[in-house]
Amino acid sequence: MKKNIVIFSFLILYSYIAISQEFKAGLTAGINAAQVDGDRMSGFYKAGFSGGLFVYRDFGNLSRFQVEFLYSNKGSKTSPKSTYPDLWQVSTTNIDISVNYIYKLFETLHFRIGLTPNVLLTSKEYTPTGIEQNPNEAPAFRRFGVIGLAGMTYFFSEKFSLTWTYNYSLYSIRDGEAEIYDISLKEQNNQRHNYMAFMLGYRF
Question: Is the distance from CB of 67 to CB of 54 less than 8 angstroms?
């Protein structure tokens, strides 16, 4: 029994050393400028925090695989010039797991594409005057979603960088059935996250 424990502990230690040699990590934090397509508003007026950690591995001189684990706030907000007091603004918090392929065009400039599966933690709808929507009076938000992204990263130095990404939901963030209509896929209660993220990164 003790021998098995020793062998198991050795395998865990060996795996940790191997992974730490192949993968590197860092921290990232920034702001989402967001809107929700499918409501009666437009404009990236919703500002939300996004931050977490990432791990990555280089494949040759041109390619990198990177996974980011983020706490992220998204949603929608009326224009400061809006005169409509009854519009429903959206605020959600999510855990995002962003999986990225990165192409290193130059040492200081990288391009990326990826997918971001996410889990909904909280959701709220409210008017500009602060009145909250009763959750039972509107289609529920989906617990799980997937977002597609594309963007670029500029490195100020070996450790510090600034990343911009454009992000869009691949399907509705609301519950509802989908059907084919006129050769197009139509979703009930179709609303989608649409946002830009501006993130500072630090590599260990």
Answer: yes
